[in-house]
Amino acid sequence: MHVELMTKTDFVGLVRDLEEMIQATTRNTHEGRQAVYDNDDLCKKLKVSKRTLQNWRDDGLIEFSQIGHKIYYTEQAVNQMLEKSKVKSLNNNYRGR
Q1: From 24's CA, which of 51, 54, 77, 88 has a CA 20 to 30 Å away?
Q2: Using CA atoms, how far apart are residues 21 and 38, in angstroms rounded to an integer?
Q3: 89 vs 82, residue with greater confidence
Q4: Which ranges carry the Helix-turn-helix domain (predicted)?
């Protein structure tokens, strides 16, 4: 039987290396993550009805994913839809009465 021993210094170094790897993995995971909304979340966020979201999906205005009966929207899809729907002001000099 062969037994290998580890010194305290080696053990501390190993733990430190493992902690750094865990932090790097966690950091990389959170950086690439974007928000995902279901129907209820997006209705509340945009203050629209579920029927409005259905109309937008039917008209192809917003991208979505469906898993079973549940509909999901990425933050990117929501932002793209809002950008496409943006209307520029016709009168930039208007200051009210």
Answers
A1: 77
A2: 33
A3: 82
A4: 37-84
DSSP-assigned letter for residue 62: S
Look up tokens 């937008």; give the residue: 56
Dump pLDDT digits (tens) for 59-87. 999 999 998 899 999 999 999 999 998 88
pLDDT at 28 over 70: no
Beta strands in 4-97 (DSSP E): 36-38, 65-67, 70-74
Gyration radius of the chain's alpha carbons? 25
Cβ-contact 65, 38 below 8 angstroms: no
End-to-end CA distance of the chain: 93
Q: CA-CA distance, 39 to 24, in Å (whole number)?
A: 33
pLDDT higher than threshold 80 for residue 96: no
Report the sign of the C-alpha dihedral through residues 27, 29, 33, 37, in that order. Answer: negative
